[in-house]
Amino acid sequence: MPLTRSVSVTSLSGLDEWDEEFDLEDAVLFEIAWEVANKVGGIYTVIQTKARLTSEEWGENYFLVGPYTESNVRTQVELIEPTNGVLRRTIDKMNASGCKVYFGRWLIEGSPYVVLIDVGFTAWSLDRWKSELWESCAIGVPWFDREANDAVLFGFLTAWLLGEFAAQCDEPPCILAHFHEWLAGLGLVLCRNRRLPVATIFTTHATLLGRYLCAGNVDFYNNLSQFNVDKEAGDRQIYHRYCIERAAAHCTHVFTTVSQITAIEAEHLLKRKPDLVTPNGLNVKKFSAMHEFQNLHAQSKARIQEFVRGHFYGHLDFNLDKCLFFFIAGRYEFCNKGADIFLEALARLNYLLRVNHSEVTVVAFFIMPARTNNFNVETLKGQAVRKQLWDTAHAVKEKFGKKLYESLLVGQLPDVSKMLDKEDFTMMKRAIFSTQRHSQPPVCTHNMLEDSSDPILTCIRRIGLFNGSADRVKVIFHPEFLSSTSPLLPMDYEEFVRGCHLGVFPSYYEPWGYTPAECTVMGIPSVSTNLSGFGCFMEEHIADPSAYGIYILDRRFRSIDESCHQLTSFLFQFCQQSRRQRIIQRNRTERLSDLLDWRYLGRVSSGGGGGGAPPTATTPLPVMLQTQGFRYPRPASVPPSPALSRHSSPHHSEAEDEDDERYDEDLEAEKDRQNIRQPFSLPLRNKGALPYSMRREQA
Known about the structure:
Belongs to the glycosyltransferase 3 family. The protein is 42% helix and 12% strand. It has 24 helices and 17 strands. It has a nine-stranded mixed sheet, with helices on both faces. A six-stranded parallel sheet has the order 14-11-10-15-16-17, sandwiched between helices. A two-stranded antiparallel sheet has the order 12-13. Strand 8 (254-257), helix 10 and strand 9 form a beta-alpha-beta unit.
């Protein structure tokens, strides 16, 4: 969406005019981030998922720049010789001058080229570069901040790389450098300070000060214009980091952020209004038939049910067929991520389900990594008991089946009383006795290092959700990232999300929100807020988000108690849906995935201006989002209701409430497709201006 451009955008010192009809083959795009081939947070997902689209557009002229980490390179990067002659000379010159720079292909979709810089190898230059930073930019970095020290090393090395690349070019270069976050921002500041012929873009995915302020339980969004930003940053001992971030925002030619809510935040905290908003996307895998992703949901749900059977052994007094799985996942920021309001809403939901004598049971998972020393013994025992019961049942079944087979072979009906002998009953009784349990099922799957002060566990003790037999809401806190190799819950994150019924992300501070976006592309309904970039984006593009399984919680204009009441209402309404209604809603949610595909959102990211010239003072910015100008309408049947056509359901729903309202899935899907534009394609002005992948096809 267009925003007012800053005065500094017109100041392109050191950058020659680029012809509006310049050949894309002559331009080079460097995308620089600390999370290139180095998973730390959400920026890794941003870069990884859009690499394919950017590689297709820029071809051999697209290079990702990140830090060299040996453990990551061994598993993610294929080291090769540089294919670009200028870049080969640049890397050789830097390596001869005391650096260690590596070149290779990142083994992800699109296989983009990566330039990896070993910051530790040049740590001997840290003091000298800090002095230069102070003399040229008046930014001082304390010795004890290791992350900031890494940012200094990485910044000087990336500026060195870009400067050397420009110097090695035979003709005046067309270099575009896209920097992500403050950790890479210092390189941008140095490029401008040294007047390098580089057009720069800076994207902030979240402001440093905003994250710290929200973690301090302040009324952040209602006081944005009143914060003394220098004092607040100094009080939190991040003033030097804040200075780097703010300098990058002001020095860059084009300043972008990922959502409208973050644009407002950046304007007040970084004192510059972003030039455009570039929402984050995902690589969306479309299924040829609607029932395919529904089948995946059923398969993953069955695996979660197996875990629940073991976790609640001895207290499995609820019907798993009427059990709903909710989850929240992400960085362990108790208030910022909304875990506090989610727990309070679960307590209220538990009361509503009990007083209404609901047969539905909710199991709520908290997937937030915290400090632990090992798995909880009782949790591991539960999975062992479940496996033992399965083995016992399987052994008895084999024995029973063999006797039945032999009886039928001789033409006799079996005598049921003789099918199982005393030994079989003894074995089954022993298995039943092993399931006896004198304690409640554990809330946490691991032994926490700070159990008494842990925010989630402290809140659970206060609200009393201890997984009792009378509780209709059960809580499982899994303080570790999911892994398919885990002995406890052997599922990766994508499998787990597909098996759940609802993702709940009532964040107070969420610049974009990849977790609800990932739910959407997998056809899983989710709860987001009007303070998250994702929630605001969906509100703008969908007439009735809740009908499509996107529940938008108001955390900006309501009190905490009112927001909690609204969230409880969302959860209770979801629990009242029939299985058929949930299937219809998942179909609608999955159709929204086109909105989040990089093929739609990638137009204004990473310098992709539809194949036109990179931004200068004389060339207009592509400030209009590809997805702007349309809205998904309200579906024909709201809310989702049982239907006569059942072709998309993996299983026929038993005992469903019948409804006279007809639901034509194909007709509704066709209407939705008409309300989204086709993926963008680059203008075919001349063959020389085509992206590499398209030129290769025409060759």
